[in-house]
Amino acid sequence: MRRRIDSKFWGIAWFIFVLVLVGFMFSAAFFLTDSFYQAIHLQPSLLISEFVNSLLALVFTGLVAGVLGKIARTKGWTPEMNLFVPIIEALERIAAGDFSVRLENQFQDNSMVGELTSSVNKMALELNQMENMRQEFISNVSHEIQSPLTSIRGFAQALENDQLTAGERHHYLSIIEDESRRLSRITEDLLRLASLESEHLKFEPKTYRLDQQIRKLILACEPQWRDKHINMDVALDELEIAADEDLLSQVWINLINNAIKFTPQAGSVKVALHPRGDQVEFRISDTGIGISEEELPHVFERFYKADKSRTRSKEGSGLGLSIVQKIIDLHKGTIEVESSLGHGTTFIVSLPIKQ
Known about the structure:
Strands 2-4-5-7-6 form a 5-stranded mixed sheet, covered by helices on one side. Strands 1-3 form a two-stranded antiparallel sheet. The model is unreliable at 1-5 and 307-314 (pLDDT under 50). It has 9 helices and 7 strands, in the order H-H-H-H-H-E-H-H-E-E-H-E-E-H-E-E. By secondary structure, the chain is of the alpha+beta class. It has 3 domains: 2-82, no CATH class; 136-196, Signal transduction histidine kinase, dimerisation/phosphotransfer (DHp) domain (Helix Hairpins, Orthogonal Bundle); 206-352, Histidine kinase-like ATPase, C-terminal domain (Heat Shock Protein 90). It has helices at residues 2-39, 46-75, 85-95, 111-158, 166-196, 210-220, 222-227, 245-261, 320-330, and strands at 206-209, 231-236, 240-243, 268-276, 279-286, 334-339, 345-352.
């Protein structure tokens, strides 16, 4: 309340001061021009005389007001004029990379300053979160790449041993080959994810038979599910959809491969495709190892691996489901997951029939 009274007082005082200053400057301008005209024996028209007087008075007013304002700010006579200084300093710190800065709203009666202060704090918070995500992403990438590189380097050095048997040498070479493929998958998935997040991504929806696409991909994976004696229960309704066929193929391949990968020998995988109003619903369920309730919210995070104990043959890049979610988001669809440990997992994808 006190600050509001002080603000009103300063406003009235400055208004009166400006009026007096402008009046004085107009009088001074009139006196100077009149003396000048008499000195050169000139009698201009009233219109020209008034125009020159007004222009000169405005120039004098600007100069004097600028000087007085600078003095007032230096002496601290006008505290309200300094309320933007902390905001400017905060923005300079943010520009220098310090996202921990937070401002206190010292002028709560000033809605404009309060809103600006809140916006700066919100921007700093979001930038700080993005910086933490960036550092975590770099750390995860470094870890994922370093792991296969360490294996390749270690087994390559082991091959230098002339005492190795042919069987051992073949075993080490197969590990190096597997780790090389894994490293390749990581880099490919990183490039694919970067492409999906790029503003220049070519998104080319067209109308095609979704059930035919999924059936072909299931048949392409036949060697994997036959090798594990997995029972594939497939129920696909004939459906047309307007979507990017190449992008969606990555979604179905990833989900089908995951279901096969984490389903034990002689298990089962059920795939279903049905219409739901103006949406299509794709479901894929397995009888695999499942995911715990605590880990479910994180399955779509980059590099997150719910099954920490998986074997080398089951290791992936940790980016597959992140890519799946990004592609579905591009199609304005949704993906959900239902699972519990030891009882399998179900992924449910809903997509609009028309883009």
